[in-house]
Amino acid sequence: MKNRIIYVSMGLIVMHLWISCGGKNTTSNVKVPGNEKGAKDKALEAGANLLQDKSPLKSFNVYLDGFHFYNGNMNAQMEAHHYVQQLNNDIYQAIIFDGNGEDAKLMGVEYIITDKIFRTLPEEEKKLWHSHHYEVSSGSLVAPGIPDDVEHELMEKLIHTYGKTIHTWHTDQENSLPVGVPMIMMGFTKDGQIHQQLIAERDRRFQISTIKKKQHRSDIPMPVIDPSANAWEKGDIRQFVLTDRPDSASHKQQHNIR
């Protein structure tokens, strides 16, 4: 019966995304250079849309809106629009955009795993991941457009998960192209960390109340967080850098040939 409820809830999520305030109200942060698409390009897209199968994309059917900051720089914060696919009961993957309209730019990706999977990771790997306990309990992570009870059920599960997030296009810095180094992102863990103007602006656009969502979720039990997650809280920062030294690609190839 529990699984049936979850399946019905996911169906409601998909339906409500299209008939409520779950999209097309947040424009991209930047405009890209280049000429407008021509008639031939538009015709090619229309034909491809009719003829080609998009199976991997079809199952990205849950929309989450939240906030990230650059690992090592909490003052650099931004809103992130996640389109999520559930691979199984313990693993999700998300495509992240800087908006939810047709002009949205693909900003990065997030991999989400349950506590059971997270505790199997090596200690060094855990430092790249953040917990979702505060994002859920504070109301800052939302699933726009779905009924509160359905969202509550979704959050009951997400509160036990961890995310590994990488941004590849820093449109929050008004970069009109995906230049620079990909960056590891983190999630907030306490009150007073996130810039309140971000919350206020998001709430206005979606016509929601983060405070009311926090109150509505107060009955969700807080999990015990693995101390190796959110390593930035202890000053243990991991971030990408550009280098002229080769990585361990040859080593990877030797061990991953199948």
Automatic annotation (TrEMBL):
<dbReference type="Pfam" id="PF06884">
    <property type="entry name" value="DUF1264"/>
</dbReference>
<dbReference type="InterPro" id="IPR010686">
    <property type="entry name" value="OBAP-like"/>
</dbReference>
<protein>
    <submittedName>
        <fullName>OBAP family protein</fullName>
    </submittedName>
</protein>
